[in-house]
Amino acid sequence: MSYYDFAIVGAGIAGASLAAELGEGGARVLLLEAEERPGYHATGRSAAFWEECYGGPEIVPLTLASGPPLREGGFLTQRGALYIGRAGDEELVTGFMQRFVPTGATIEHLGRGQLQTRLPGVRPGWSDAIWEPVCADIDVAALHGHFLARARAGDVRLECRARVAGLERGEGFWTITTARGESHRAATVVNAAGAWADPVARLAGASPVGITPYRRTVVQVRVDPAVPDDLPLVLDLRGQFYFKPESGRLWLSPHDEEPSEPCDAAPEELAVAQAIERLGEVVDWRVEAVEHKWAGLRSFAPDRRPVYGRDPAVEGFAWFAGQGGFGIQTSPAAARLTRQLLLGEERDTMTQELEPELYAPARFV
After folding, report:
1. Rounded Cα distance, 188 and 318, in Å
2. Cα 355 to Cα 335: distance, rounded to the nearest angstrom
3. What span, in angstroms and rounded, lies between the C-alpha atoms of 241 and 257?
4. Confidence of residue 325 (pLDDT cuts 50, 70, 90)
């Protein structure tokens, strides 16, 4: 039976990025994926953008730290983002600016005229916007593939169709049993299981931290007039929708957050209808066809911050979970920080401005 320094449960963007970092740090790593291929769930269903304010002020440092490696790697394509508000949303606009300007995010307030220029067809009543010029599309498949390639180069072993069924600690290591009856040994188990993070913790005898999966729906529609290629990502200040262009079509979400059991999420017709209805309230475009629809699970801890680091009560058990909808855009910095925490390394230029205490599992004790 092979022995590893780390066994990472889950090979989505979280597990793949951390496996790459740990492998490059000289650790022997086993990456266990329950599905037939990595990235089947949340990673493969992302709306695929890097947006500085997404996730809130406490996530901004992770996003900003991840920007340079994502740009240098060629994974970002500049788009820009508009948070838009209705007449009467002045307090929301002011509050947004007060929350995010101190974080270092690049944002500015726009009036109705500038909003009309950037969002053709916007209906009367939408009067304010916050412009974020550096927002970009992310090539999620390329980024995930990049992390997996780095992991392979670091001699990480990837096992698919390897759903973890049992975790038993003894003599300073874990015996990990998969649903197919295979067994592995590792000094540390890292929980990067996304929507399944709390169930994996229970297998290890660790206290769940309350990570809850929420369903998010995305619809691809064809509209008339055709979507401009340079249309920015458009988000509602009240959190009711967002939409962005994609290959001549529009990706549209009602920004739904329905609690769910961990599962292979599917879109519900009500959410699809809400997405289309809300789009019609924003712009005078006509939806000609719904071409595709899907749903994914975004998993959050109770305080909406990710969970990185060793469990305070269970020896040899660590967390890399609860990354909601921002796990992809923060993956370089999050994985580097967690590598440093797990290997006892000093912080570097990417992570020196981060506060690991914000994300530590011990905050739930």
Report:
1. 7
2. 14
3. 11
4. confident
Q: Of 30, 36, 2, which Cα lies nearest the Cα of 18?
A: 30
Question: Is pLDDT of 282 > 90?
Answer: yes
The angle formed by the CA atoms of residues 230, 253 and 90, to the nearest 5 degrees, is: 75
Give the CA-trace dihedral at 301, 306, 311, 316, to 10 degrees: 120
pTM of the model: 0.96
Taking the C-alpha atoms of residue 150 and residue 98, their distance in angstroms, rounded to an integer, is 39
Residues β-bridged to residue 4: 186
Torsion-angle region of 210 (φ positive above 0: left; ψ -120 to 50: alpha; else: beta): left
Q: How far apart are the first and last CA of the chain?
A: 35
pLDDT (mean) for 250-257:
95
User: Model confidence over 195-215: pLDDT tens digits?
Assistant: 999 999 999 999 999 999 999
- The amino acid sitting at 36 is E
SS3 call for 166: strand
Closest CA to 309 of 151, 188, 222, 223: 188
Cis peptide upstream of residue 68 (ω within 30 degrees of 0): no
Q: What is the pLDDT of residue 40?
A: 73
Tokens found for residue 361: 């599992």
Q: Is the dihedral of CA 147, 148, 153, 156 positive or negative?
A: positive
Contact of 118 with 129, CB cutoff 8 Å = yes
Q: Return left, alpha or beta for 106; rule: phi > 0 is left, psi -120 to 50 is alpha, else beta.
A: beta
